[in-house]
Design brief:
mainly alpha, 65% helix, membrane, Monovalent cation/H+ antiporter complex subunit F, cell membrane, transmembrane, MrpF/PhaF-like
Amino acid sequence: MSGSPILWAVGVLLTASAALAVYRVVRGPTILDRMIASDVLLTAMMLSVGTEMVIEDRDDLVPVLLVLACTAAFATVAVARSVSKHDRREPDEVAVDPLGTVEQAPAVLRQALRDAEQMNDERLDADDLRPTRREEP
């Protein structure tokens, strides 16, 4: 059974997906691209372990699958929290908390409109069109 064409096809596809995911992890360009690629890589690893379990009729690799799945989930949550903290304004940068209550919504909207009026095309990041905090020379 180890030489069947289906197993070869599965092996080639999983290897190709893992190789492309590693390329995207290294290449980027953004942290979110890298995070999605690492999720794809961990998924390919889980599929490889699952395929091995089915072919060899093994059940002792379930903890390995569990660790890989937990790693993927925790890494995704960690990056999402990091990116959301990175996108928030500093407290001294704006007088209104953008995550405030409903009563503060008009003030948040006014501040967002002021920010949009001050924005110019040179300050936009080409990857995701969000304003960057870096100063161009």
